[in-house]
Design goal:
- The chain is an all-alpha fold.
- The protein has a single domain (about 70-265), classed as MetI-like (MetI-like fold, Orthogonal Bundle).
- It has 11 helices and no strands.
- The longest helix has about 35 residues, at about 60-90.
- The radius of gyration is 23 Å and the shape is globular.
Amino acid sequence: MSLSNRARLFLASIMGIGLTFIYFPLSVVVINSFNSSKTFSWPPNKLTFQWWQKAISNTGVREALGWSIIAGLSATAIALILGTCLAFAVARYDFFGKETISLLVVLPISLPGIVTGLALNNAFNQTLGIGTSIFTIIVGHATFCIVIVYNNAVARLKRMGTSLQEASMDLGANGFTTFRLITLPNISSALFAGGLLAFGLSFDEIVVTTFTAGPGIQTLPVWIFNNLFRPNQAPIVNVVAATLVFISIAPIYLSQKLSSDSASGGRI
């Protein structure tokens, strides 16, 4: 399909407006992380690295980063195990209520975060009598991380079919060997992409974390929110936000690449 020059110019303009709308605020955050002024005068009169040095030595930032990594990795590990098992059950077997099960698995990610957080808080504190802690944060994050892994895995399993597994078992391989040598290599890219997205979703979560975090536990997003309007901490908040922007580029690109390979049947 060929487009006229006017149509191409129009589409390019719309794309430019959209990208500007998305990335201009991020650019302001990155530039302000080097702004020597605490009031963030614009444009900056002078650039400095002092806020980056203070952020590196800030104990609160390091502790919050540690909690975020622990919660993200743990929730992702749970999501990979449970999400993959659920995907196999739905994609490989026919049973009564299969579509209902699939709907119930996907439902948590469509609910507002405040509803999920409130429900988890009530379940932990009032029903189960479990105090909020890093454990409850991990469980809360895993509830929606499972959806990401499940969607990736079930889509790839449906595209794969069962012919390779059936051929492997016809040649004498048992179920575990077939999974290890045939199934897992074929779905590994989808699982890795799902794991990256699940970790990113967990790392970024603030609403559910607020309802499930124990005393003295702050993940990085919660730390940013709590310190955003403190004059002495505002420059450091910009540094942390800018760092997250830079760090997010590689995982997002890799996840997108792996998801594209998975959709086309590619392998890593």
